[in-house]
Design goal:
The chain has one domain: Winged helix-like DNA-binding domain superfamily/Winged helix DNA-binding domain (Arc Repressor Mutant, subunit A, Orthogonal Bundle). It is 52% helix and 12% strand. The chain contains 6 helices and 3 strands, in the order ααβααββαα. A 3-stranded antiparallel beta sheet has the order 1-3-2. A hairpin with a 2-residue loop joins β2 and β3. The protein is globular, with a radius of gyration of 15 Å.
Length: 113
């Protein structure tokens, strides 16, 4: 996994979640892994300071996403794609099962989900 390239597991978790969801907040990542929020928030801030991520306020929550102006994001996403696809499907489904966006208005609910 890219944990060894990035230097720590928290960095890998943060980037994989943003790759999967497009944008996310620190508590969402921490909740999915069952870890405390502070190291996640610190890693998000490091990536923002390094110009890999940008953030915006949504209500009272700071949401992070890839910086579309950064020249590093496109090659990074290619590496993340390889890593993401190497995760076994059942593990991916358990890690990224949480719905992060509201359901489209009028969209039918399938199987009670």
């Amino acid at each position: 996994m890219i944990e060894f390239i990035l230097g720590n597991r928290t960095a890998e978790r943060v980037l994989l979640h943003i790759y999967h969801y497009g944008e996310i907040h620190a508590a969402g990542i921490a909740g999915d892994y069952g870890v405390v929020v502070n190291p996640i928030r610190q890693q998000l801030e490091r990536f923002e300071k390094g110009n890999i991520l940008v953030s915006k306020m949504v209500g009272r929550t700071r949401v992070y996403l890839f910086n579309p102006k950064s020249p590093y994001v496109k090659p990074l996403k290619e590496i993340l794609k390889i890593t993401y696809e190497a995760i076994p499907l059942n593990e991916r489904e358990s890690l990224f099962s949480q719905r992060r966006r509201p359901r489209e208005k009028g969209k039918k609910v399938i199987n009670g989900l």
